[in-house]
Design brief:
- By secondary structure, this protein is of the alpha+beta class.
- It has one domain.
- The protein has four helices and five strands, in the order H-E-H-E-E-E-E-H-H.
- The strands form two sheets. It has a three-stranded antiparallel sheet with strand order 1-5-2, with no helix packed on it. Strands 3-4 form a two-stranded antiparallel sheet.
- A hairpin with a 2-residue loop joins strand 3 and strand 4.
- The longest helix is centred in the N-terminal third of the chain and has 15 residues.
- The radius of gyration is 16 Å and the shape is globular.
């Protein structure tokens, strides 16, 4: 996993011109426990709402929540990602995700259901 981590960090900067601040992965608890991520010092944040990607965008119904694990790549990842000034992120380029009108209408309700993560000491 460490080789993959180093490779994706380098490839991302080459491809997109800005750094990665953390890695994220999802683990299906019906099949796996995420032990390899815990052993590699990834942090488990909790469960997703259970929606999944489909060819059309996202499923309309929550099916199977996944465990969310993250691995910060910089000591200041939390500070950088929560700072109100986007210019500090060194982002370039345009967003690549396109949502249809119905998905856009559902976003406010979706965001209301997301709890704030617990405070994690930095």
């Amino acid at each position: 996993m460490s080789l993959t981590e180093r490779r994706v960090v380098a490839d991302w900067r080459t491809r997109f011109g800005h750094p990665l601040f953390l890695l994220e992965t999802f683990v299906d608890p019906q099949h796996f426990h995420g032990g390899v991520y815990r052993a590699a010092n990834w942090m488990e944040l909790g469960l997703t709402q259970g929606f999944r990607r489909t060819r059309e965008g996202y499923s309309a119904e929550a099916v199977a929540p996944k465990r969310v694990f993250v691995r910060p790549l910089r000591r200041d990842a939390r500070t950088q990602l929560t700072h109100p000034g986007r210019d500090r992120l060194q982002l370039t380029g345009a967003p690549k995700i396109m949502l249809n009108a119905e998905q856009m209408r559902q976003l406010p309700q979706c965001f209301k259901t997301i709890p704030d993560p617990p405070s994690v000491p930095t």
